[in-house]
Write a structure and sequence with these properties.
The structure is a single chain. The protein has 404 residues and is of the alpha+beta class. Strands 2-6-7-1-5-4-3 form a seven-stranded antiparallel β-sheet. The longest helix has 35 residues. The model has no long low-confidence stretch (mean pLDDT 92).
Length: 404
């Protein structure tokens, strides 16, 4: 299996400048390759340029510009061109599927934050100074950069990536490992129902509280964004010192919330994986849930619109995004795979409206957000617990219908 590791780098002032130049030059290569593809397609011949053609030009590009493009790893530049090729492949796939296509766009310097090295030892070297107790990673054109390695790397390092997040730099490794030993069986099975009032409720009647990290930081974020809004929108290199500090303040607050949300998701998922052999959850389409309601035109007044609940839906969308369901479910699946646990996603329709005692399905069974009262048999319970019970039963049915 492949496992990823992310470590904080401690570059010197000179290395920080070199890392910034590396991102700038890779961004320039990405944009130039995108422009070439656009120009070729706009030509009368409708020429389509592929990755192989653009990769073959790298040798000439590096020879023509040795002080910029020639400084960096050839393989990392190929990886940048592959990234563009994947963007176009996804674009054509969405066009064929009838989805919103989203044509690949040019990247600004602030929106290009990652450089990939496809192979350890080709333009980069993890643990380049093994004789030194301080771990370092060597990057072509940058040098040996100190790394804050907070845990050991198990397995053979396959790829290395450098990522910028605000003022911090990280190195991300992927290592090939043997299949881990599964955790001891507990004999426990559970269904979970994701929510907003509570982060999740399980079929055993337990609730995990929703920390609402974003809501707790909203006052500081609003103040920081008001301060930032007073400055004119100019290029990054044209910003005054106070402008740069205001930008950094907003970025730091967002980063803190994101890391808090990620930490909470890891701890919650780990508890579930340790305690249960089988976990069933709702197959949520979060992107669809976050869609804004369509506008309603007023037939009596041309050019005006009727109320459509957009304000209330915006508040709900913020709460859903703050809960971080998608991040949590991704982490849960990854941890379950490493621990040898089974995780199954089931159709969430009517899970909170179906009585677990008699099976009666009705919207009237849920008179309030938290209360479940079956109009057929009179069963009373918390609505989220009922949803989790129904999710567990549906998950078991699906597991038995498709045995491994």
């Amino acid at each position: 299996m492949i496992r990823a590791y992310k470590f904080l780098m401690r570059p010197t002032v000179g290395q920080t400048a070199a890392l910034g130049e590396m991102l700038r030059d890779h961004c320039s290569l990405y944009n130039a390759a995108l422009q070439e593809r656009r120009d070729a397609y706009r030509h009368a011949s409708k020429t389509s340029i592929k990755y192989g053609q653009q990769s073959a030009q790298l040798k000439e590009i590096r020879a023509f510009d040795p002080e910029r493009q020639g400084r960096w790893s050839f393989s990392s530049q190929q990886a940048t061109l592959r990234r563009l090729d994947k963007a176009f492949a996804a674009f054509f796939r969405r066009v064929k599927a009838g989805e919103r296509p989203g044509c690949p766009r040019f990247r600004g310097v602030n929106w290009f934050d990652t450089v990939d090295f496809p192979k350890d030892g080709d333009g980069c070297r993890w643990n380049s100074t093994p004789h030194d107790p301080v771990t370092r990673v060597r990057l072509q054109g940058v040098g040996h950069v100190k790394v804050n390695q907070h845990r050991p790397v198990v397995g053979k390092v396959k790829t290395v990536s450098v990522k910028r997040e605000g003022r911090r730099w990280y190195v991300i490794l992927t290592a090939e490992q043997a299949e881990p030993e599964p955790l001891p069986a507990t004999g426990s099975m559970v269904g979970i129902d994701m929510g907003i009032a509570n982060f999740l409720a399980d079929s055993n009647g337990h609730f995990v509280p929703n920390p609402r990290h974003g809501r707790k930081a909203v006052a500081k974020l609003e103040a920081a964004q008001r301060t930032l809004s007073r400055f004119p929108r100019v290029r990054r290199d044209k910003r005054a010192a106070n402008h740069q500090r205001a930008v950094q303040r907003v970025a730091d607050l967002h980063r803190k919330v994101r890391r808090q949300r990620l930490d909470y998701a890891h701890k919650t998922a780990l508890d579930l994986v340790r305690e249960h052999d089988f976990i069933a959850h709702e197959d949520l389409r979060i992107r669809n849930m976050l869609r804004a309601p369509a506008p309603k035109a007023d037939p009596e007044t041309p050019g005006s619109f009727l109320p459509n609940g957009a304000s209330a839906k915006a508040g709900l969308n913020r709460s859903i995004s703050d809960a971080g369901w998608g991040v949590f479910l991704t982490i849960l699946h990854a941890k379950a795979e490493s621990a040898g646990r089974d995780v199954i996603a089931v159709d969430p329709r009517n899970t909170s409206r179906t009585c677990p005692e008699c099976g009666h399905v009705s919207a009237e069974n849920r008179p309030t957000q938290e209360t479940f009262h079956c109009v057929s048999c009179g069963h009373n319970a918390h609505a989220d617990t009922v949803g989790a019970l129904n999710v567990l039963r549906a998950g078991l049915v699906r597991r038995d219908a498709n045995p491994a």
